[in-house]
Amino acid sequence: MTLISSQHFRFVIMVEEEQVKKEDSTKELSDSELDKLKAERKNRRKKRLMKEAAKADKRGVCYLSRVPPRMDPLKLRHILSQYGDIERIWLTPEDPAAPVHRKKAGGFRGQGFTEGWVEFTNKNVAKRVASTLNGEQIGGKKKSSFYYDLWNIKYLSKFKWDHLTEEIAYKNATREQKLALELSAAKKERDFYLAKVDQSRALSSIDERLKKKRKIQQANGTSEVQGDHQQAAKVIRQFPQTKSVRDGGEKQKPGLSKDLLAGVFGGSS
Description:
By secondary structure, the protein is of the alpha+beta class.
């Protein structure tokens, strides 16, 4: 046991010494060598990105305008993977209010989807799948709920998965902006309502105080006139109004006199 422990201890010391040497060597590197290492890392990243871009160019995306009920991404992948390799699948969930109404009617209680996108590793495979399956029966096992449903699939030329992610991000951003605007409007209405409530409470408390003062003055035998002067003066607003036009009060249009017309046409006055 002592021999094993001593050998293990020596091995650990050797490993630590090697690590220290590596750290010292990295510290001793000059600025030019560090720049070279950074450049090599950048080139490797660029190469990886170029490879991924080339793979993305070879991929093709198909669009599903309708997703059958009880269909989920796993089942869709299982069915379409028979025709070719699939990279990604995205199905848009339905409105949250739809399953609630469906449950009340006694229908399907699970999550439903309205539309979807399927990305194949090869464009040609995606085109062939869209052309052969569009309008055809889904089939499969007769016990499945979507056995008699039809495929509504279309190949999207010059469409990449990045376009879909950008569209989804844009929709999410617009939805968040709308929610923020609605929340701000609701807060403004709430604050306005609360301010009016506080104002009405203050006015009612003032009225109660004035009534108490009047009762005290009446009990002490003071005149009611003084109490009326203490009451807050009511504001009467006056708005300017247009004057009404009388019947026949319109201005007459200027015309030629009868004497002038008689002189021109030689008529007797």
